[in-house]
Amino acid sequence: MDNISVYCDNCYVREAVHSIIGSIKSSHCSDGHLSVFVFEKTWLNEIELTMLLNCKSERVIVFAREALLGFFSSLMLPGHISFGRFDVALNMIRKSLSDFINPTLKDLFVSRLRVPTTNKLSPSERRVTSLYVQGISVMHIAKSMNKSFKTVSHHKRNAMKKMGISSNVELMQKGRIFLMMNKELLLASQKSVA
After folding, report:
1. Separation between Cα atoms, residue 164 and residue 87, nearest integer Å
2. 3-state secondary structure of 4
């Protein structure tokens, strides 16, 4: 467990996570440094957020309650951070940790290359998605496009459905990859907001 750091504000939860990690860690565990953050509260203080944002680990997993995961989806977090629910059954947390610590080579390869399919998106859906992923709120997007909040929300929902994305957190993670691969779309959307 030398290459796995666990950050948690509750010493009992930290010990439980260490125990789970010890029971699932195998000899073919990833050689890179891994970090596990566990937030059982529905809010973060400045120190906790700074620790997460400044974490230099190769891969990071954050377990949090649903309300806090919604907050994380609004941030522009690095792509090496993945998320899991803290308020679920223990066996689901164990499976998430197991998949995180002992990923198969295929999982690592696929997760790095898994980019949302965007060729089915309408121009409006692409524009809304690219702006949302940059951290612009749906309300602000609606104002900049001269559309109603409901219309922009509908474009975002349709885009997520077409890309096979089920949550805002996943949209933020995979959407960044999409934007990096489509820089001309990013530049066009930035001009439209300015």
Report:
1. 24
2. strand
Query: The dihedral of CA 181, 185, 190, 193: what is its sign?
Result: negative
Q: pLDDT digit string (tens) for 37-49?
A: 999 888 888 888 8
Using DSSP bridges, classify how beta strands 81-85 and 4-8 pair: parallel, antiparallel or unpaired: unpaired
- CA 82/CA 112 separation, integer angstroms: 12
Q: State percent of the chain over pLDDT 90.
A: 10
What is the sign of the dihedral through the CA atoms of 109, 112, 114 and 115? negative
Q: Which residues of the chain have pLDDT under 50?
A: 27-28, 105-116
CA distance 134 to 34: 26
Q: How far is CA 174 from CA 104, 118, 154, 187, in A?
A: 20, 11, 19, 18
Amino acid at 1: M
Joined together, the tokens standing for residue 149 give 């909040």
pTM: 0.53
Beta bridge partners of 62: 37, 83
pLDDT reported for residue 147: 93
